[in-house]
Here is the input.
Amino acid sequence: MFWIALAVFFVLLVIVVLAKQKQSRDDGGALSFKIQAALFTPAERSFLGVLDLAVGKDFRIFGKVRVGDVLAPQDGLNNRARTTTLNKINRKHFDFVLCKPDDLTVLCAIELNDKSHLQKNRRDRDAFLVNACDGAGLPLIMFDARRAYAPNEIGARIAEALSTKTPNRIEPVLQASALEDADLFALDSEIAPICPRCSGLMMKRTAKGGENAGKEFWGCSNFPKCREILAT
Here is the structure.
C-alpha cells in the first residue's frame, strides 16, 4: 500500500506541475509585465514639441528609434565582423530621427543630452554614435537639455546639418500654419519657457479681458488640460 500511495502522490504532483505550466503558457505571462508611465521623459516630450515647431510639416519626427533600424554593417564584412558590428549597436537607440515625409528616409539623428551624459559610460556611448554616424554619412545633432528653447535656433541648427544632404532646407522660422490660433502666439525668436507643471512648451498669448486685458503672458500649450501661466 505504501508504494501505491507514493506512486499516486507523484502522479498527482506531475499533474499539478503540468497544469501550472499550461496556465502560464495560456496567459502569455501577462502578470510579468506592466505598462510604462510614458514613452518620453518630461524633458524629451517638451523637446519633441519644440522640434515639431522647428521643422513644421515638411518632415516627420520619430522618437526612441533603434540604432539598428537606422544603421547597418557595411557590405563585404565576414560573419564574425558583422556580428561584432551588430553587437556594438545592440540595445542602443536614437532619441529622435528626422525623416522625409513621403518615403520616411532618415535624414538625421538627434540626441538630447541631459546631465547623465556627463558620466563616462554615456560619454563613451555618445562618442561611439558620433563615429558610427560619421562613417555612415548620417548627420547627428546633439542638443543640451535646457529649461527653455528657441525653436528658431533649433531649426537653424537642423538646417545647417541638412544643407549638404537635401535641397529642401528647413527654414529657421516658425510656420503659422503649424500652430492653432496663430494670432495668439508670438512668432519671433524669443526663447519659450517650459511649463513648470507639465513640462509642455509655453506659448505667448494676450489676455482678452479682465484687468489684464491687452497684456501678454506665457500660457501652457497643453491648455485646457494644463492651465499654468507665467508672466512675460
Notes: The chain has two domains: 42-162, 179-231.
